[in-house]
Design brief:
mainly alpha, three-stranded antiparallel sheet, 15 helices, about 45% helix, FAS_N, Fatty_acid_desaturase, oxidoreductase activity, acting on paired donors, with oxidation of a pair of donors resulting in the reduction of molecular oxygen to two molecules of water, transmembrane helix, membrane
């Protein structure tokens, strides 16, 4: 029976995967049954197989019709027609990971720690500059502008820490760890805890059961959710604030916490890393508590609290957009149908206009998911080089206004 999954867009059946239909004369001769081909009223053909016991109609199970309709006539969801051949985005691609890698210039794989640190310095200067200007003017005309700008900069800090977690920041693990802790702890993200779970996400992208976050829920898991969880997860604007809850308790159907060293997320040899990150996170909470006594809780809320909420909205929105289609549905896989390459091709690139440079081209998500070792400042070039290989498996993002 077909399984049902629930994505953030609603409840719908998960497409079944059928074994490849057997074709050729050998198959026809393997059974003394009779095959009949008849023309239908819709200018198509149907196949029927009769035997001494029963007759079965195979009209809906052939892999391709004898006559392909023109593009404007075929509106089937999930299929794009190219000449006389239909394109199925869920089909195994005709290329390999090595083919894509070979198309990407070699310098795109080079990690420059000085260049990476220059982005850190740039973002940190902007963050403190915005806070100083906001505190100086301290009026309600300026505050909303500050909240959006600072929340976006917190998101930019997260992306740089995200690069540290992938090892694309530099080839030095210690530098990656120090920079990652400073960047992520400053915005209340446990660096190692998140790094490990995000690695799990990349290793299982596009897998219905094994993907770590923003994956479809099975009907059974959805029905077992309490009403409060359903409301918070599937009713706007609550999903845009889900990230802190996810850090504490993960997604529905999964157990564990990003702060606890004995969580299901981690293996025993990662225990020290998780403890280190939780200690750094706790230290940042203590600093914020001290600042609330010095400048007052309201001022801290305006300078840090609301920008933090804007950052969380950025993170949840961008993550959702990169893993869910709207104009066309993206395939999800399970079991033997899944592979690292097929799962990576279910991601989407998005264009954020003038924000692209601010949040370090995180919109170039397909190549990032396939090759997370590529530094963010090479992703645009790497994507352009890979497009000819990816062909229709790459979905060109709509330009943002």
């Amino acid at each position: 029976m077909a399984s049902w999954v629930l994505s953030e867009c609603g409840l719908k059946p998960l497409p079944r995967f059928y074994a490849k239909p057997r074709t050729g004369q050998a198959f026809l001769n393997s059974n003394p049954s009779k095959v009949r081909i008849s023309r239908t009223s819709g200018n198509g053909y149907s196949f029927s197989l009769s035997s001494g016991f029963r007759e079965r109609n195979w009209g809906l199970k052939v892999s391709a019709p004898l006559r392909v309709q023109p593009v404007e006539e075929n509106k089937e969801e999930g299929k794009i027609l190219n000449g006389d051949e239909s394109f199925d985005p869920g089909a195994p691609p005709p290329f390999k990971l090595s083919d894509i890698k070979a198309a990407i210039p070699k310098h795109c794989w080079v990690k420059d720690p000085w260049k990476s640190m220059s982005y850190v310095v740039r973002d940190v200067v902007v963050v403190f500059g915005l806070a100083a200007v906001a505190a100086y003017f301290n009026n309600w005309v300026f505050w909303p502008l500050y909240w959006f700008a600072q929340g976006t900069m917190f998101w930019a800090l997260f992306v740089l820490g995200h690069d540290c977690g992938h090892g694309s920041f530099s080839n030095n693990p210690k530098l990656n760890s120090v920079a990652g802790h400073l960047l992520h702890s400053s915005i209340l993200v446990p660096y190692h805890g998140w790094r490990i779970s995000h690695r799990t996400h990349h290793q299982n992208h596009g897998h219905v059961e094994n993907d770590e976050s923003w994956h479809p829920l099975s009907e059974k898991i959805y029905k077992n959710l309490d009403n409060v969880t359903k409301k918070l997860r599937f009713t706007l604007p609550f999903p845009l604030l889900a990230y802190p809850i996810y850090l504490w308790s993960r997604s529905p159907g999964k157990t564990g916490s990003h702060y606890h060293p004995d969580s299901d997320l981690f293996v025993p040899n990662e225990r020290k890393d998780v403890i280190t990150s939780t200690v750094c996170w706790t230290a940042m909470v203590a600093i914020l508590a001290g600042l609330s006594f010095i400048m007052g809780p309201v001022q801290l809320l305006k300078l840090y609290g609301i920008p933090y909420a804007i950052f969380v909205m950025w993170l949840d929105l961008v993550t959702y957009l990169h893993h869910h289609g709207h104009d066309e549905k993206l395939p999800w896989y399970r079991g033997k149908e899944w592979s690292y390459l097929r799962g990576g091709l279910t991601t989407l690139d998005r264009d954020y206009g003038w924000v692209n440079n601010i949040h370090h081209d995180i919109g170039t998500h397909v190549i990032h998911h396939l090759y997370p070792q590529i530094p963010h400042y090479h992703l645009v070039e790497a994507t352009e080089a890979a497009k000819p290989v990816l062909g229709k498996y790459y979905r060109e993002p709509k330009k943002s206004g």
